[in-house]
């Protein structure tokens, strides 16, 4: 039986015959031509032919100009692409479904469904949510990640001091800044050694295990070597700017048997791709489905709460893509060859890490939206705490405890000084 | 003396204080904080501090709503980033200047200037325009490239027949379809052997040397091996879907001393990044400057003439980025540390390949816009010729000859049957 991956496009055009356009995509991006083929050849080529699954046209309510240019008339078009047409890797799939087509007018890739057969070629996250929790010994609450306040131009002593300040507050993960590259002041192996030593000192006081996600950077073919050197120096997690290197490079790092630490995917450059309504790739595909498929154990993305804002429904769509163990939400239609069974995801779940502008007062909102399988990620909310970074970490942990106990932050803050100070500084939205 | 790479952003906001925003970018994406640093620390950190070079605000003419949403108020902001802050590779530069920032509202990276010091770390195209011309022995006219009509589901015999048909028309280059991946019917080494044999047969008739750009695909870390196997089987050029793998992977392929063939960069997925006025990366940066820096010998992009349309000024900006030997157009301002000399590009020029919807009647326009250092790239314009693909190639060569001789295509077509038929079929815009 043939197997298909399914792409959903939103396509804006004031006048196009969208059904005709859908047919031309399904043929043009697969067998090239169809109606002029002899019947015998058609029979032979049918297994390579793209299939139009649905065309849902939305006519503009008024029929006039919308605020976005044009009338706002669009169609959501679903096309099934035979797995037989591409190799089982993300570059081949993306080039097939959105290579040339991305340049063909106002069109956005809004969903992408991987066939069970295609997915079976991917190992996905090596640790995932449960694996990361196992490493930290924390299973019952949201995790807490913090980031350095500033890194460029700082030497090892300064960086280690910052690291210790964060670690002392009881955070679970600390990540490098994504713009910290190989540099003479804090080269990766020395940085890992110094920071992991600070982590050990902090653990002696807090009892808290800690993952340090060190930024893997530089020439593409040397990334795995660099990661292994960092791990050799003691690194127990990696940070990776996935979109600067492509999804297959993440997959290779994640699948490497010698890289036995979780990988946190940074969304750097993602804003060049997801925010336009007319062009690009939806955040749920880019930072959700593809990151998980490629093996990210944790995925950072702009939260709907803070300074870098992504609409809440997009955040929820990313979350769903990262954590769901059932794939029915991708369906709503039957792909050719689909036997109707609801497949269970063969991939471990990735930890969602909504980021930017997070302070302790937002923890109730984060838990309400994401549940406990979330990483609360803070920079200014830790370092900007009136009593210092360690107190900032403690304020977040207290906020997490308060939410677990069902106690409003303002009330919990009365008996927990750090949280109280944070709520006074930033407010609380509980 | 410090050295800086310079990013120019177009930033839309109805109310923002753009000067303040520019300062916050220059500080936030470099040293992190500035005004709260002690004076001694500021002195130490100054070499890492981003510099605002200019902020040009364009207020909306009417002050009201524009057709694009918002008032249309925007600013072009130039920021200089110290080379000291990032390693000398494209991922590090892009993550620095547009990693986090890409997600911060309506902002597009519209230009990127590499410091001479940064550029000096790149070899650029191994062949470039002159090298490709040398390989083909053609120095005085636009080159002609053709592409397969359809590839998926075809076996070696069918593919070879198509190849020969194109080659027999006297084309200079034939490229794989970008959606042809490793597959059981036409695996890369067998495909190369069969097609290069067809190229030899055609050359015996036409006398025309020919480059066959075979598509390098699959796992990221195996691309170089695959390229070398293809070259071992006789391939004399490569096609590469750069944006599916990242610019550094192109750079590594291009810099590999064992890959001694030109590389043609395909723009697949580029439409997810360049067309929006509000988000993404300008085509001249994405398909121009970065492709050349990373070592593409030929760069395909949507032409302004045909079916997949890019505005003409964007095409011209790509062309300039690919071929200019002087970098003054990147300036218009003085970067800190810039001694005022106009640097000459240390990189070979890349061949511009405007593509999609090209027929012989467009050759005069292409030459008018691009000069003779251009590759005329045709698919339907070759295969759809009323007298067949070989005649299609000849029609293009005749059109190129006519333009060189300053003879209108309609006139030249009277004595050259293939061109005459093409002009009758598609018209001529001379």
TrEMBL record, chains A, B:
<dbReference type="InterPro" id="IPR017717">
    <property type="entry name" value="Diketo-Methiopentyl-P_enolase"/>
</dbReference>
<dbReference type="GO" id="GO:0016984">
    <property type="term" value="F:ribulose-bisphosphate carboxylase activity"/>
</dbReference>
<keyword id="KW-0460">Magnesium</keyword>
<dbReference type="GO" id="GO:0000287">
    <property type="term" value="F:magnesium ion binding"/>
</dbReference>
<dbReference type="InterPro" id="IPR036422">
    <property type="entry name" value="RuBisCO_lsu_N_sf"/>
</dbReference>
<dbReference type="Pfam" id="PF00016">
    <property type="entry name" value="RuBisCO_large"/>
</dbReference>
<dbReference type="GO" id="GO:0015977">
    <property type="term" value="P:carbon fixation"/>
</dbReference>
<dbReference type="GO" id="GO:0043715">
    <property type="term" value="F:2,3-diketo-5-methylthiopentyl-1-phosphate enolase activity"/>
</dbReference>
<dbReference type="InterPro" id="IPR000685">
    <property type="entry name" value="RuBisCO_lsu_C"/>
</dbReference>
<dbReference type="GO" id="GO:0019509">
    <property type="term" value="P:L-methionine salvage from methylthioadenosine"/>
</dbReference>
<dbReference type="InterPro" id="IPR036376">
    <property type="entry name" value="RuBisCO_lsu_C_sf"/>
</dbReference>
<dbReference type="InterPro" id="IPR033966">
    <property type="entry name" value="RuBisCO"/>
</dbReference>
<keyword id="KW-0479">Metal-binding</keyword>
<feature type="domain" description="Ribulose bisphosphate carboxylase large subunit C-terminal">
    <location>
        <begin position="128"/>
        <end position="426"/>
    </location>
</feature>
<protein>
    <recommendedName>
        <fullName>2,3-diketo-5-methylthiopentyl-1-phosphate enolase</fullName>
        <ecNumber>5.3.2.5</ecNumber>
    </recommendedName>
</protein>
């Amino acid at each position: 039986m043939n197997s298909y991956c399914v792409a959903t496009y939103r396509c804006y055009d004031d006048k196009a015959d969208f059904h005709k356009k859908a047919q031309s995509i399904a043929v043009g991006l697969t067998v090239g031509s169809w109606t002029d083929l002899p019947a015998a050849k058609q029979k032979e080529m049918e297994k390579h032919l793209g299939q139009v699954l649905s065309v849902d046209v939305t006519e503009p309510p008024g029929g006039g100009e919308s605020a976005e240019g044009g009338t706002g008339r669009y169609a959501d078009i679903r096309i099934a692409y035979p797995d037989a047409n591409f190799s089982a890797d993300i570059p081949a799939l993306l080039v097939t479904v959105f290579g040339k087509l991305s340049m063909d007018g106002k069109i956005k890739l809004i969903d992408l469904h991987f066939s069970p057969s295609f997915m079976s070629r991917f190992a996905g996250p090596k640790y995932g949510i449960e694996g990361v929790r196992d490493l930290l010994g924390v299973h019952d609450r949201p995790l807490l990640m913090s980031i350095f306040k500033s890194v460029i131009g700082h030497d090892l002593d300064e960086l280690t001091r910052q690291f210790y300040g964060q670690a002392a507050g009881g955070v679970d993960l600390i990540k490098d800044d994504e713009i910290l590259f190989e540099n003479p002041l804090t080269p990766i192996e020395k940085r890992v050694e110094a920071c992991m030593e600070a982590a050990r000192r902090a653990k002696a006081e807090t009892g808290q295990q800690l993952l340090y996600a060190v930024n893997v950077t530089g020439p593409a073919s040397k990334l795995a070597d660099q990661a292994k050197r960092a791990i050799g120096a003691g690194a127990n997690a990696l940070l990776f700017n996935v979109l600067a290197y492509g999804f297959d490079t993440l997959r290779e790092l994640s699948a490497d048997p010698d890289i036995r630490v979780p990988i946190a995917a940074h969304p750097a450059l993602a804003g060049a791709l997801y925010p336009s309504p007319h062009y690009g790739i939806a955040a749920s595909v880019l930072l959700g489905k593809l990151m998980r498929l490629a093996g990210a154990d944790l995925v950072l993305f702009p939260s709907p709460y803070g300074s870098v804002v992504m609409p809440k429904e997009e955040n929820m769509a990313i979350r769903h893509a990262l954590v769901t163990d059932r794939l029915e939400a991708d369906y709503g239609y039957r792909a050719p060859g689909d036997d109707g069974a609801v497949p269970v995801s063969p991939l471990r779940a990735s930890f969602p890490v909504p980021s930017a502008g997070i302070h302790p007062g937002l923890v109730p909102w984060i838990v309400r939206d994401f549940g406990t399988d979330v990483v609360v990620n803070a920079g200014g909310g830790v370092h900007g705490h009136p009593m210092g970074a360690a107190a900032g970490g403690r304020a977040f942990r207290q906020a997490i405890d308060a939410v677990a106990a069902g106690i409003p932050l303002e009330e919990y803050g009365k008996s927990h000084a750090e949280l109280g100070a944070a709520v006074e500084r930033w407010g609380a939205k509980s």
